[in-house]
Design a protein that fits this description.
Layout lengths: L2 E4 L9 E7 L6 E2 L4 E6 L4 E5 L4 E5 L6 E3 L3 E6 L5 H27 L11 H10 L17 H6 L4 H6 L23 H16 L2 E9 L1 H18 L5 H15 L6 E3 L2 E3 L6 E3 L1 E3 L2 E3 L2 E2 L7 H16 L13 E5 L18 E15 L2 E15 L5 H16 L2 H5 L2
Parallel strand pairs: 12-16, 16-17
Antiparallel strand pairs: 1-8, 2-4, 2-7, 3-6, 4-5, 6-8, 9-18, 10-11, 12-15, 13-14, 17-18
Helix pairs in contact: 7-8, 7-9
Length: 408
């Protein structure tokens, strides 16, 4: 009797997941607790493990959307996979005869109901292309039509010949003009939905300022080696910006607050969300109680969270909550932008590229490494005076880093 492996509950608000990748193949022997597949929700990627040792029998295909509790696969007793392999020589011996007598029939025949049946994602692609599933040969398990099979499938030549556009194909523009369609991942769909919601449901404005980064760069240059030797981590810009935000939030608490119904919720702590570009989309892991952390602790936490994000190892808990967000478009070369609020938060700070520019300093024109910073905020809770005051306070703290240590 095989053991069915089902989609486990992965969070209160998650009702379905996408089977993003099979780590093991159909018929493989797996050990207990061995990773067999990866599941992707709208918030994170999860690993599906074997609940006992045995032979894997795949039920769902890669790309399928599965509700919580749906059967993904089953695990048979250890020797269950041996019988199909034992029969394979006979099947191979019979194959040449079948090819000579009636090859077309052999292609369409099969021992499984799955032969010639498209997976849900493949069926959708075939429907969009107008291709009959009967004309596609499946390469999946038991002859099932996979997403890749559907993507490569083309309409029958006769249909193209009747089309007036087909006669103009030889005169097409030279060069590759191919297209490809990819289903949006749950994470990308959630990001898209939330960003549109924020634009539609908040009174979002952005205010700008600029920061002379020379004092911080001089401080880093002077102490970076000692800092690295003592704490085992480099001294970056993110820790300075995080500390500056925490200090400024003490003077302007509305920037660290949120709206719930008809109430404003003020926080006496600062959980800073840091926007990280991960392989599957933008994620925002959180530095908890950043106001009580040292520069070294912040740097270590940033590195740990960024590494997990890029390896798709972040948990839902590490991305849930947050009272204020910092995003650094400067690492990609952005000169200026208007970041979108990370709901239900009320503000987000955008860092940008550092460019040497001429500025007036003590009535003289000097060249300084300058950075534009942007604060997008919800005008329903934060007034213009508070938003500008907050950004000016951040600027003052960054241009005089000693204030971050003295708290003045």
């Amino acid at each position: 009797m095989g053991l069915e492996i089902k989609v486990p509950p992965v969070g209160e608000s998650i009702t379905e997941v996408v089977l993003s990748r099979w780590v093991k193949n159909d018929g493989d022997f797996v050990e207990m607790d061995e990773i067999i597949a990866e599941l992707e929700s709208d918030k994170a990627t999860f690993e599906l493990t074997a609940e006992k040792a045995g032979t894997l029998k795949i039920v769902a295909s890669e790309g399928d959307t599965l509700p919580i509790g749906a059967v993904v696969c089953s695990i048979e007793e250890g020797g269950a996979a041996a019988s199909p392999k034992a029969e394979s020589p006979k099947a191979e011996a019979a194959a040449p005869v079948a090819d000579k007598v009636s090859a077309p029939v052999a292609e369409k025949s099969g021992d499984s109901y799955a032969t010639g049946t498209p997976s849900p994602s493949a069926a959708k692609i075939l429907a969009e292309k107008g291709v009959d599933a009967g004309s596609v040969k499946g390469t999946g398990v038991d002859g099932r039509i996979t997403k890749d099979d559907a993507a490569k499938a083309e309409k029958a030549p006769s249909a193209k010949a009747e089309s007036p556009k087909a006669t103009t194909q030889p005169a097409a523009v030279a060069g590759a003009r191919g297209e490809r369609r990819e289903k949006m991942s749950p994470l990308r769909k959630t990001v898209a939905k939330r960003l549109v919601t924020v634009k539609n449901e908040t009174a979002m404005l952005t205010t700008f300022n600029e920061v002379n980064m020379k004092p911080i760069m001089d401080l880093r240059g002077k102490y970076k080696d000692q800092f690295k030797e003592k704490f085992g981590v480099g001294l970056g810009f993110m820790s300075f910006f995080t500390k500056a935000v925490c200090e400024a939030a003490k003077d302007f608490p509305a920037v660290n607050a949120r709206i719930e119904g008809e109430e404003i919720v003020y926080n006496d702590f600062v959980d800073v969300s840091i926007a990280v570009s991960a392989p599957k989309g933008l994620v925002v892991p959180i530095i908890r109680n950043a106001e009580s952390m040292s520069l070294a602790q912040i740097e270590k936490t940033v590195i740990e969270l960024a590494t997990k994000a890029r390896d798709s190892k972040l948990t839902i808990e590490e991305m849930t909550g947050g009272t204020f967000t910092i995003t650094n478009g400067g690492v990609f070369g952005s000169m200026m932008s208007t970041p979108i609020i990370n709901a239900p938060q009320s503000a987000i700070l955008g860092m940008h590229n550092i460019i040497e520019r001429p500025i007036a300093e003590n009535k003289e024109v000097v060249i300084r490494p300058m950075m534009y910073i942007a604060l997008s905020y919800d005008h329903r809770i934060i007034d213009g005076r508070e938003s500008v005051g907050f950004l000016v306070r951040v600027k003052q703290l960054l241009e005089d880093p000693a204030r971050l240590l003295l708290g003045v």
